[in-house]
Amino acid sequence: MSEVSAERGRFAAGDALMPIDRALAELDARLTPVTGIETVPVRQALFRILAEDVTAPVNVPGHDNSAMDGWAFRLADLPSDGRLPVVGRVAAGHPFDGDLPAGGAVRIFTGAPLPSGADTVAMQEDCRAEADCVVLPTTLKRGDNTRKAGEDVALGSMVLVAGTRLRPQELGIAAAVGRAELAVRRPLRVAVFSTGDEVREPGTALPPGCIFDTNRITAGALLRTLGAEVSDLGILPDRQDVIRAALREATQDHDMILTSGGVSLGEEDHVKAAVAALGSLHFWRLAIKPGKPVALGEVAGVPFVGLPGNPVAVMVTFMLIARPMALRLMGASVSPPPRFPVQAGFAFRHRPGRREFPRARLAWVDGRLVAEKFPSDSSGVLTSMVWSDGLLEIAEDVGDIAPGDIVDFLPYAEMMR
Fold first, then answer.
1. Strand pairing category for 65-66 and 390-393
2. Read out DSSP for 315-333?
3. Burial class (CB in 10 A: 0-12, 13-18, 19+), 387
4. 135 and 81 Cβ atoms separated by less than 8 Å
5. What are the strands, taking DSSP E only, across 136-263?
6. pLDDT (tens digit, 9 = 90+) per residue, 317-371?
7. In order of start, what are the domains of the chain with their CATH numbers?
């Protein structure tokens, strides 16, 4: 379960802004997997978290085989004119019976096992069949167009490690070594709330001064991309007693609670107080933009993350904070998202002290990959997330950015899966 109790040490709190790297280190140190383990068929394990190491009980491929359609032979038997008699035929799943006769060639097809004694394959397009003989090229080297047993996976080698999030290729390699089932972590169960008297359900009437709720939609979708089971528990009003009751109820059958809004300094921001009353609130002011107010803690032992209310800040802080938190609770191996250096195609005023994440997209300009920044930096402009391909990362100690400067780019494709 989550190690967030007072006995194991609390997250640091206070008025000073906390660097995001320190926040992530605190999370990694204090969170452990909360989900149980179950065994499922390989074909049902897509995007699940592997809960066991997988070693190979067989070689892959299991035998020396042909990489091409053609003729298999022993290179030492090849005469100067390249002519050998054809003594048999080998197809995948139908091995040659016995050893290859000296001085003979065998018609062979891709994936078929090499006859014992054969060591080279000539591609059919380089050969000429003549009655019971075949004329082979004389420029081949021993082993050409063949694949060795265990070339892909060696018997006894580890092919998958626990904590891996299983993509199609991992399922393929599990099947290749004969695994029909895999032990995986149970999906993380996450309760998702929005908060605020001004927030309304899409499709309902919109009174003056109110807005439609986007945060539950986007946060819930981001969680589902991780394979989490999401309970959409609606919109909570700005009343601490209601928020407290809803949070308490959510702890009964969820592994994590996520809210948006109500974690800043306003008089109507009641989420922090409700969390503190039921458990503990650890830190909530991060040195990032957008997304400074982020609350992390626990509610009756259940890990809690409170994201800001602005829709862009919700998505950015989810990708940076809530995503690695959820993956850690799921038992996944967590690594920072990759950053790619690109040229800035814009000028940007940056005051050192906070790490900023402007929205951007990439374009080819005169043969160079250039980042174009969305015109507005407002955390309320959700269209910036639709327009962009990813985030730029402007470090805390960096000053103004000029066109042509090298900046780090974090693609959404690496943070929304």
1. unpaired
2. HHHIIIIIHHHHHHHTT--
3. middle
4. yes
5. 146-147, 158-160, 181-185, 189-195, 199-200, 211-212, 229-236, 256-260
6. 999 999 999 999 999 999 899 999 999 999 999 999 999 999 999 999 988 899 9
7. 6-35+188-199+231-329 (3.40.980.10), 40-59+152-185 (3.90.105.10), 65-132 (2.170.190.11), 340-414 (2.40.340.10)
